[in-house]
From TrEMBL:
This is Multidrug efflux pump subunit AcrB. One of its GO terms (molecular function) is xenobiotic transmembrane transporter activity. The keyword Transmembrane helix applies. InterPro entries: AcrB_DN_DC_subdom (IPR027463), Acrflvin-R (IPR001036). The chain crosses the membrane at residues 12-30, 333-352, 359-380, 386-409, 430-452, 458-480, 518-537, 854-873, 955-976, 982-1004. Keywords: Membrane, Transmembrane, Transmembrane helix. It comes from Donghicola tyrosinivorans. One of its GO terms (cellular component) is plasma membrane. Gene3D superfamilies: Multidrug efflux transporter AcrB pore domain (3.30.70.1430), Multidrug efflux transporter AcrB pore domain like (3.30.70.1320), Multidrug efflux transporter AcrB TolC docking domain, DN and DC subdomains (3.30.2090.10), Multidrug efflux transporter AcrB transmembrane domain (1.20.1640.10). Pfam families: ACR_tran. The keyword Transferase does not apply.
Length: 1013
C-alpha cells in the first residue's frame, strides 16, 4: 500500500500527525529561544601587557615579539595581530575557523599557558600579561545612565547599586559598567620645603604606601582555637592621609607641612561618555546563552522600573540599544509576513485552482511552518533573523510539493477516480521525484550551512531550517494533503479531458508547439539573452552583507595622533550641538577615547585612543538616515577640519573594517609609510570616489627627549631612572598607594603642583634627588637640554611582521567591487623592495574567505545533487537537460537587481541558491512527467506537449505564490536583495522550465523524433 493511500485509509494516524504539528508548533513558538542575530563565535582573544616608559618600537620588539613567538607555536591560531603603543602591547589572537565554540575554552587555556611561559622572556619593567578571552561577549541591553548634580563618589555608588541589583535578575549573565568618572588622591609636594629639607621622594611615597596597605598580623592559639589578629586599619579618608607624619633628619614632620593633599578627577581620563550632551556612564547587560533574550529583557526592564523608585531623584536610565525589543518586533513582523504569505498562497490558489485546492494546499503549508517551529525548538535552533528568513525563503519550495500532489489528485478525481485511487496514482508518479528534488533543494544550501568559518556559523540556521521544513513539506504532501483532498475534492466535476482545455492551456500548448518547430532559433535566443544578462550582471553592485534595518548609524572621528582626550571631546560637542537641533534624531550617544561596549554581535569596538571620538546616532526611521548622514558629513567635514571624519552604517553579519584595505608588510617602518603614501596617491589618481584615506599607524607624534649628561650625572650619583622619576613626578605623577572607598580602589599619586601646566617649561626647574648626596640637584646640571623627535606611536604587526594598512572609504551606496576592480591593478603594480609584500583586506578579503570556505563545501554538495538527479532518471540526458537550465537562472536575477538598483549581497547569493533549487525541482518533475507520458505509448511530440501542459499550472502557481510571498520582504533591508533575486529569477525560471526544458528535451532525443515522424 502506498503512503498516500494509507494516509486516507488510516486517517487517525494522519490526524495525529496533523494535530501533532499544530500543537507542537504552538509549543515550539512559545518555548523557542529568540535572538536578534544568530550566535556565531567571535574566535578572538586579546592579550594586554603594560611596559611603562617604553616607546612603541621597544614595546613591539621587547614585549610583543616574544609573546607572539610563543603564541605562534599553537596550531589552532590563524592570525596574530598586535598594536603597539608607548607603554602598552595589545595582541589579538584569532583562532582557525575550523574550531567551533565548544573547543574554545581548551584553546584559551592553552593560550594562557603559552603566555605565562613567555613571561620570563619579557623585560624586567614589563608587567604581567592579561589574557582577555571574553572579548566577544555581547551586552545586548545597553543603557546610558546620567547623574546630574551628583558627586563622582555618589555616581560610583549609584552604578554599583544598579549593577548589583540587575545581576540578581534571573537570566542575566553579566553587567558591565563603562565611562564612570575616574578620581585620584593627589599629593603635591611643596618643592621649596622638600628641597631645603632634603626629603627624598621615596619617603613621601613610602609613608603613603605603608599607611594605606593591607597586611597580615598573624594569629594566636587559645583553648585549641586559632584566632586571627587583624592589622591596624590604614588611612580611610583624605584628611587622614593629609595628617600622616614623616621622619626627616631625626624629626617627625606632618605631611601637610610638606605637601598639599587633594581629591579630584584625573586630568586625562581613559574615556568620556555623554548621552544627548550630558555626562553619563553606560550599563551593558548580557543574557545567559540559550535563554530567551526577550524574557530576560522584559525582566531587566521590570527590575529597572522598580529600582527607579529607590535611586535618587534626577538619575535617568536611557536605553541606547534594547535587543529584546528588536527581537520581539522581528518575531511579530515574522508572524505578519507569514500570515501574508499564507494568505497570498490561498488567494492565488483559490483564483486558479478553486477554493477547495486553496484550503488543502494552504493548510499543508501552515502545518509545515508550525511543524518546523516545533523541530527548531527541539533541536535548539533559535528564532532569529536568519532562521525566520529561511522559512520565507523555503516558502516557494514548501508549497510546490503540496501543489503537485493536490493538482494531480484534483485532475484525476475530475476524471472520475476516487480519492484513494487518485492519491495512490499521483504519489506513485511523483513522490520519489519530489523527494529527490527536495533533497537537491536542501543540498543547494549545504555548502553555506556546513562552512566552518564565521559566515557559515552565522548562516547555519538557514541550512538547518530549510532542511527541516523541506523534508517536512514532503512528508505532509504525501500524507496530510491526500487526506485533506479526500475530504474536500469532489469526484467527476468535469468531463474527461477537460482539465487542460482552458484558453490559457491552449495558448501555452500552441506556443510550445511553435517553439518545438523553431527549437534551434529558440535555443539561440536563450543563449543570446543569457549572454546579455551575464554582461548586465557584471554591472550589478556587489556587497558582502547588507546594511542593518535598525535605525542606527555611527560616526568615527580621529584627531591627529597624540591629541588629548578633552580636545577630542570638545570637537564631539560641536557635533552633539548640531544634532540636538534635528527633529529626526532620537538620541546621540558619545564615546571619546574608545568604542562602546559590544552591544551587538556584529559591532566591533574600536581600540582605545584619546584622539578617537565615536557617536551612535539613533533616528526616528530608517529612511531618515541617508539625508541626515549626508548633511552631517557636509557639516563636519567643513567644520572639523583638524580631524578625520566619516560615518558608517550598521551592517548585518560578520565582517567589518574599511571597504577597501591594502596591507604592506616589511621590516622598515619608514619604507612602509612610503609605500602606504604611494598607495593612497595611486588610489586617488585611479578613482576620485575614494575618500577618508588613512593608515592604521596614524600620524607620528613629537617626543621630548632629554639629553642625559652621563659624566655630570654619574658624578652626583644620579641615574637615568632618577631623572625619569623626577620628570614623572613633574607630569603624570608616581603612584604611591591606593585609597579604599567601599569596593573602590582610588590611586594615590605623588605629583608636583605645576604638573598640569601647558608646555614643558616647568621641567627645566625640576630638582632631582641624589641618594648619594642626600640632596636635590637641579636637572639643568644633569642634562644638556631637550631634543624633539617624531616617532611612530602606533605600530601594527601582523603574524610577527610589521604591517601598515591603508584604509579607504567610499560614499554611501557606492559599488565597492567596481571601485576595487579599478584601483587593484594600480596598487599591485607598485614596485616592492625585497623583503616586502602587499595583500588585500577589507570587503575583498572577507568575501573571498567566505566564498572560499563555501567553495570547499560546494563541490561535495554539487556532486550529491548531480548523483541524485542521475539516480532519479537512471540516464544522463534527462539530468543534463535540467542542469543546462541552471546557468540561465541568472538572467532574471540580473534584470531584477538592475531594475531595482539593489546590490548582489551575500543574502542575494542565498536567494540564487534557492532559485537554483526551485528550478531544478520543477525541471525534475517536468522531465519525469514527460518520461511517464512517453511510457504510456503516447507519440513523442504529443507526449512532450501533453506532459508540459499538465505541468503548467503547478509550475506557474508555485512561481506566483513564491514571487508574491516575497513581497513582505522587500521592506526588510536584510532580505530585500534576496527577495528581488528570487522574484526576478523565478519569473524567468518559470519560462525556462515551461519552454526551454521541453525544447531541450525534444532536441536531445533525435531518435524519438525520427520514430515519431
Amino acid at each position: 500500500m502506498s503512503i498516500a493511500r494509507a494516509s486516507i485509509d488510516r486517517a487517525l494516524v494522519t490526524w495525529m500527525l496533523i494535530i501533532g504539528c499544530l500543537l507542537g508548533g504552538i509549543w515550539g513558538f512559545a518555548t523557542i529561544g529568540r535572538l536578534e542575530d544568530p550566535a556565531f563565535t567571535i574566535k578572538n582573544a586579546v592579550i594586554i601587557t603594560q611596559y611603562p616608559g617604553a616607546s612603541a618600537e621597544q614595546v613591539a620588539r621587547e614585549v610583543s615579539e616574544p609573546l607572539e613567538s610563543a603564541i605562534q607555536k599553537m596550531a589552532e591560531v590563524e592570525t596574530i595581530t598586535s598594536s603597539n603603543k608607548p607603554g602598552v602591547s595589545r595582541i589579538s589572537v584569532e583562532v582557525e575557523s575550523t574550531y567551533d565554540g565548544t573547543e574554545l575554552p581548551a584553546i584559551w587555556t592553552k593560550l594562557r599557558n603559552r603566555v605565562n611561559d613567555a613571561q620570563s622572556s619579557l623585560p624586567s619593567g614589563a608587567q604581567a600579561s592579561v589574557v582577555n578571552d571574553t572579548f566577544g561577549d555581547v551586552f545586548g541591553l545597553f543603557f546610558a545612565v546620567t547623574t546630574p548634580g551628583f558627586s563622582d563618589a555618589e555616581t560610583h555608588q549609584i552604578a554599583n547599586y544598579l549593577r548589583r541589583e540587575i545581576l540578581a535578575v534571573d537570566g542575566v549573565a553579566d553587567v558591565e559598567l563603562a565611562g564612570l568618572p575616574e578620581e585620584a588622591i593627589y599629593v603635591a609636594p611643596k618643592t621649596a620645603i622638600t628641597t631645603n629639607l632634603g626629603v627624598a621622594p621615596g619617603a613621601l611615597a613610602g609613608a603613603i604606601t605603608s599607611a594605606t596597605s593591607v597586611s597580615s598580623a598573624g594569629s594566636v592559639t587559645q583553648n585549641g582555637q586559632d584566632i586571627r589578629i587583624e592589622a591596624p586599619e590604614g588611612s580611610n579618608s583624605v584628611d587622614e592621609i593629609a595628617s600622616l607624619t614623616i621622619g626627616v633628619g631625626g624629626e617627625v614632620i606632618d605631611l601637610t607641612d610638606l605637601a598639599d593633599v587633594t581629591r579630584e578627577r584625573v586630568a586625562e581620563p581613559s574615556m568620556i561618555i555623554r548621552y544627548n550632551g550630558q555626562d553619563a556612564f553606560t550599563l551593558g547587560v548580557a543574557g545567559k546563552a540559550d535563554l530567551n533574550i526577550v524574557d530576560i529583557g522584559h525582566a531587566v526592564d521590570d527590575r529597572i522600573a522598580a529600582l527607579m523608585q529607590d535611586v535618587p531623584a534626577g538619575v535617568q536610565i536611557q536605553p541606547i540599544y534594547q535587543q529584546h525589543v528588536v527581537v520581539e518586533e522581528a518575531s511579530n513582523a515574522f508572524l505578519v509576513n507569514l500570515a501574508m504569505s499564507v494568505a497570498i498562497v490561498v488567494i492565488v490558489l483559490a483564483i486558479f485552482m478553486g477554493w477547495r485546492a486553496a484550503i488543502v494546499v494552504g493548510a499543508t503549508l501552515l502545518l509545515t511552518v508550525v511543524g518546523t517551529l516545533f523541530f527548531m525548538s527541539v533541536f535548539g535552533i533559535e528564532m532569529e533573523r536568519i532562521s525566520l528568513g529561511a522559512l520565507i525563503i523555503a516558502m516557494g519550495m514548501l508549497v510546490d510539493n503540496a501543489i503537485v500532489v493536490a493538482e494531480g489528485m484534483q485532475g484525476d478525481m475530475h476524471q472520475g477516480k476516487s480519492a484513494r485511487d487518485a492519491a495512490e496514482d499521483v504519489a506513485s508518479k511523483t513522490q520519489i521525484p519530489l523527494l529527490g528534488a527536495t533533497v537537491i533543494g536542501i543540498m543547494a544550501f549545504a555548502g553555506i550551512g556546513l562552512s566552518p568559518d564565521a559566515t557559515g556559523e552565522f548562516l547555519f540556521s538557514l541550512f538547518a531550517v530549510i532542511g527541516i521544513s523541506l523534508l517536512l513539506s514532503w512528508v505532509l504532501a504525501i500524507t496530510a494533503t491526500p487526506l485533506l483532498a479526500h475530504y474536500l475534492f469532489k469526484v467527476g466535476d468535469q468531463v474527461e479531458g477537460g482539465a487542460y482545455n482552458g484558453p490559457i492551456f491552449r495558448a501555452y500548448r500552441n506556443t510550445l508547439s511553435l517553439a518545438l518547430k523553431l527549437r534551434w532559433l529558440v535555443m539561440a535566443g536563450l543563449i543570446a539573452v543569457t549572454v546579455v544578462c551575464y554582461i548586465g550582471f557584471g554591472q550589478v553592485k556587489q556587497q558582502f552583507f547588507p546594511d542593518s534595518n535598525t535605525p542606527l548609524f555611527y560616526v568615527h572621528y580621529k584627531m591627529p595622533q597624540g591629541t588629548g582626550i578633552h580636545r577630542t571631546a570638545d570637537d564631539m560637542a560641536l557635533l552633539e550641538e548640531w544634532l540636538s537641533k534635528r527633529d529626526d534624531v532620537v538620541s546621540v550617544s558619545t564615546f571619546v577615547g574608545g568604542g562602546a561596549t559590544r552591544f551587538m554581535l556584529t559591532y566591533g569596538p574600536e581600540e582605545g585612543l584619546k584622539s578617537y571620538g565615536h557617536l551612535i546616532i539613533r533616528t526616528e526611521t530608517l529612511d531618515a538616515i541617508p539625508p541626515l548622514r549626508q548633511e552631517l558629513e557636509d557639516f563636519a567635514r567643513s567644520t572639523l577640519t583638524d580631524g578625520e571624519f566619516r560615518t558608517q552604517r550598521l551592517a548585518f553579519g560578520p565582517g567589518g573594517g574599511a571597504p577597501i584595505e591594502a596591507r604592506f608588510s616589511g621590516p622598515d617602518p619608514v619604507v612602509l609609510r612610503q609605500l602606504a603614501q604611494q598607495a593612497m596617491v595611486e588610489m586617488k589618481k585611479t578613482n576620485p570616489l575614494v575618500q577618508d584615506m588613512r593608515t592604521d599607524w596614524r600620524e607620528r607624534e613629537l617626543v621630548l627627549k632629554p639629553v642625559y649628561a652621563d659624566e655630570r650625572a654619574q658624578a652626583t650619583g644620579i641615574s637615568r631612572e632618577d631623572v625619569a622619576s623626577a620628570f614623572l613626578t613633574a607630569t603624570d605623577g608616581i603612584r604611591a598607594g591606593v585609597y579604599r572607598e567601599d569596593d573602590r580602589l582610588i590611586p594615590i599619586m605623588v605629583r608636583n603642583a605645576g604638573a598640569t601646566d601647558e608646555g614643558a617649561a616647568h621641567l627645566i626647574d625640576q630638582p632631582v634627588y641624589s641618594s648619594a648626596a642626600q640632596a636635590y640637584i637641579p636637572v639643568t646640571q644633569l642634562i644638556d637640554g631637550f631634543d624633539y623627535e617624531a616617532q611612530d606611536t602606533l605600530l601594527q604587526r601582523r603574524n610577527r611582521v610589521t604591517t601598515i594598512t591603508v584604509e579607504v572609504g567610499l560614499p554611501a551606496d557606492t559599488n565597492v567591487a567596481a571601485v576595487f576592480t579599478q584601483v587593484r591593478p594600480a596598487i599591485e603594480a607598485i614596485p616592492l623592495p625585497e623583503g616586502y609584500k602587499m595583500e588585500w583586506g577589507g570587503e575583498f578579503e572577507s568575501s573571498t574567505k567566505a566564498q572560499g570556505s563555501l567553495g570547499k563545501q560546494l563541490p561535495l554538495s554539487l556532486l550529491i545533487m548531480i548523483v541524485i538527479s542521475i539516480l532519479l532518471f537512471g540516464q544522463l540526458r534527462q539530468p543534463l537537460i535540467i542542469w543546462l537550465l541552471v546557468p540561465m537562472s541568472v538572467n532574471g536575477v540580473a534584470l531584477g537587481l538592475l531594475g531595482t538598483g539593489l546590490p548582489f549581497s551575500f543574502t542575494a547569493l542565498l536567494g540564487l541558491l534557492s532559485l537554483s533549487g526551485m528550478l531544478i525541482k520543477n525541471g525534475i518533475v517536468l522531465v519525469e512527467e514527460i518520461d511517464l507520458v512517453r511510457a504510456e505509448g503516447v507519440p513523442f511530440r504529443q507526449a512532450v506537449l501533453d506532459a508540459s501542459t499538465s505541468r503548467l499550472r503547478p509550475v506557474v502557481l508555485a512561481a506566483a505564490t513564491t514571487i508574491l510571498g516575497m513581497i513582505p520582504l522587500l521592506s526588510d533591508a536584510f532580505f530585500a536583495s534576496m527577495a528581488v533575486t528570487i522574484m526576478g529569477g523565478l519569473g524567468f525560471a518559470s519560462v525556462l522550465t515551461l519552454v526551454a526544458a521541453p525544447v531541450l528535451y525534444y532536441t536531445f532525443f533525435p531518435k524519438a523524433r525520427r520514430a515519431d515522424a
